[in-house]
Write a structure and sequence with these properties.
Chain lengths: ~230, ~230
């Protein structure tokens, strides 16, 4: 479902050019469960932003569902980001002046759902992430781990077929982490593609394939033996 | 150095009152190394904000260095926050329009250091957290783990005697986590008081005492046997 060929991403900064992704080739099949790991600064979030169509590569090709992303119209890209891909940001990116419920419901507004459908589905998702009693809190009235879970909920609300989750359990205690990982495991078992970034080996163990980045390239790519 | 007696903290929200801290009694001696753990939403960050004099309790007493914090003047509190306490926020709280170097140097401006002193010390601190080659990046030009390390650096720059670090390694890979924990271990070995919040048992193992919160109260408080 995802093919990237010789992807690079440079960031100009003052007089320098910082080469963050330095030539990545990858193929991810529909229904895979992948974990990206690697040192801080190795390019994981940058790669996730490219996969999520939130950024474009400096060079190289990204083919999603058989179509070249650089050839897609803005409308096609917006549709993909809203309905096919669910993105959990490393820094959550919640709207500060709206409640947890409204934050989670927002992607459904773009998807054209009615207000009743949005409220019902947003309540269901927030209950699934353990926040049934926090729906009317704004982000600054939530703990770090609660904000993280609102971000997870928002990514899942339109039932996307590709989940991209950047450090989804970084602020969660072990019990709550297990609950969130169970959600992702269920989504994967239903046939969807789940791609995580994590720095915790225990979380990566949920995936069937671990890809390690270092200095903007793939250092290793290992599949688990099937059970 | 820290004594808190029957501390509570309520947050009004609409018609409700949310009781977040429900009666906490604690004593922490100078030079201790303490880790707070507990479920997401149990009140750890709220307690850290009280300890860091960034918030005031709804009821109860906080005695810091033998003085009742509620009796201190605004100037005394500002002095404590700037020179005696180094605070690492769970969500970093960096100034978005200034570089890593400027963010780290900011507490020294309030402390009255000269520009040359600020630059030298800020560079030293950023080198200690592994960001020597990222000093002129702004927060949105840094990875999640790099921002976290800038936040750690800023907390250490005035050489405070009490460190309060809320999830300081939540976004770091294992090797970088070890580097940051080595920093905290050294600060503790120099006689300072280090208080962390973490959800990772391996990080908590660096401390000599683990206090677990649940639903706003202390559930357990265990000291390690001395080596
Ligand atoms: N301003 C506020 N208004 C209402 N409720 C609040 C407010 N701030 C925090 N809370 C609630 O207080 C509780 C404790 O929050 P706190 O941030 O201290 O938790 P925490 O233990 O640090 O959690 P985490 O591990 O997820 O960071 C949470 O349930 C949160 O929803
Ligand atoms: N806009 C930018 N301008 C310059 N450099 C950037 C920019 N954005 C990111 N970088 C650099 O790119 C590198 C990779 O960043 P990225 O966020 O992808 O890392 P990461 O692997 O997700 O790290 P972490 O585990 O700390 O989250 C970092 O060294 C960072 O400083
Ligand atoms: Mg990242
Ligand atoms: Mg917290």
């Amino acid at each position: 479902v995802i093919e990237i060929h010789n992807i690079t991403r440079d960031f100009p900064l003052g007089q320098e050019i910082i080469k963050v992704l330095r030539g990545i080739d990858l193929e991810i099949e529909r229904g895979e469960y992948v974990a990206f790991m690697g040192p801080s600064g190795s390019g994981k979030s940058t790669l996730m932003n490219l996969l999520g169509c939130l950024d474009t590569p400096t060079s190289g090709q990204y083919i999603l569902n058989g179509k070249d992303v650089s050839q897609m119209t803005d409308d096609e890209l917006a549709e993909i980001r809203n309905k096919e891909i669910g993105f959990v940001f490393q820094t959550f990116n919640l709207l500060p002046r709206t409640t947890a419920l409204e934050n989670v419901a927002l992607p459904m507004v773009y998807a054209g759902a009615t207000k009743a459908e949005r409220i019902a589905r947003a309540e269901e998702v927030l209950t699934n992430v353990g926040l049934a009693d926090r729906m009317d809190h704004k982000p600054n009235q939530l703990s770090g781990g609660q904000r993280q879970r609102v971000a997870v909920g928002r990514a899942l609300v339109n039932k996307p077929s590709i989940i991209l989750a950047d450090e989804p359990t970084g602020n969660l205690d072990s019990k709550t982490s297990v609950e969130i990982m169970n959600l992702f495991d269920d989504i994967h078992a239903a046939g969807n593609t789940v791609i995580l970034v994590t720095h915790e080996e225990e979380i990566a163990e949920h995936a069937h394939r671990i890809i390690r980045l270092r200095d903007g390239i793939v250092e290793s790519d290992e599949r688990k033996a099937p059970k």
